[in-house]
Amino acid sequence: MKIARVSVNNRRKAFEIRAGRHTYVFPYARLEIRPTTSDRVCEAHVDDELGSEAFSYTLESGRQGSVHLDHVLEYNRDPTYMRDLLLYQLTLEAQRRLPRSPLSRREMIRRLRTSPAQFYRLLDQTNYKKSVDRMLSLLRILDCDVELLVKTRAA
Question: What pTM value is reported for the model?
Fold first, then answer.
């Protein structure tokens, strides 16, 4: 996903980022280089050098900072981003447990009822087209129990 535009809202003390079909808010409080009342944000732009996947901002003092879109999506708890993050974490766990498994890869493929190519796609952490259920099936074969914790958000 690419950032289409970014605007500064000093009154709200936040950036407004347009990416895809959504507009996200990212507060100044989450920045590494934070503006103050005497050193406000004077300019923000989509950073082409970062592949339009980040934006840069400049304070009145001349200090500069950048924010990647992943930080914005994580702050806003974007469902697609959170799903991809979950798949990434499940994949890394499967990769860590694979060498310790007593089963051969051929046996894992047989138990998953899939092809070798699909099995290796499951182990690819950059592949986000796989399903969470297939990852859970693989982790089950690797003798893992995955628990999903649902809790009330803190205020």
Answer: 0.73
